[in-house]
Amino acid sequence: MSVEAKKPEHRTVFSPAELREVETTWRQALTSLPADRTLAVEGALTDDHVWLRGRVTNRDRSEVVVVEAATAVAANDAADLLAGRVSVVEYLFVMLEELLEADLWPRPPLDWTEFDYEGRTMRFRGSVMNEAVEDMAEAWLRDHGEAE
After folding, report:
1. Which of 18, 29, 48, 144 could make a disulfide contact with 14, Cβ separation 3.0–4.6 Å?
2. What is the dihedral of CA 128, 132, 134, 136, to 10 degrees?
3. Beta strand pairing call for 64-72 and 120-129
């Protein structure tokens, strides 16, 4: 019998307008973010966690920074849900700002790592990738019959 991994259910917790506002606010506040970088933010409520991802990409995608944060919330408690949303936005901003100011060093943890932030437990992870090289490698594998 085959058992498939259960995918978490994602529910809307940030409206598109709220995510655009986060992006605009972060872009203005991140003084270490070069003007030629794109910034994208997405978020959801999944498995009773408010989750947020920030993505910073240069023009040729040779440097892509992805950071994610999540905090547990009581999804049926409006006050806790709001507090979790605010905390995860603030926390991820702080982590992204520190990462950019330190010229991406040290690298963020690849696996979820727990941190305390203003009395809440935050889970954080991230990566720095060269998507342009990854695309070239995938194309090479496809061209040589090695792709899945």
Report:
1. 18
2. -170
3. antiparallel
- Residue 114 pairs in a beta bridge with 123
Query: Across residues 56-63, what is the average pLDDT?
Result: 95
Span 117-126, average pLDDT: 97
SS3 119: coil
- For residue 73, the 8-state DSSP code is -
Enumerate the domain spans of the chain: 10-143
Measured CA angle at 112 (ends 111, 116), to 5 deg: 140
Enter the DSSP assignment of 63.
Answer: S
User: Residue 22 pLDDT > 50, yes or no?
Assistant: yes
Apex 75 CA angle, 73 and 78, nearest 5: 95
End-to-end alpha-carbon separation of the chain, Å?
A: 24
Q: How many residues does the chain have?
A: 148
List residues bridging with 141 in a β-sheet: none
Q: Are 122 and 87 a contacting pair, CB within 8 Å?
A: yes
Residue 119's Cβ-count burial label (10 Å; 0-12, 13-18, 19+) is exposed
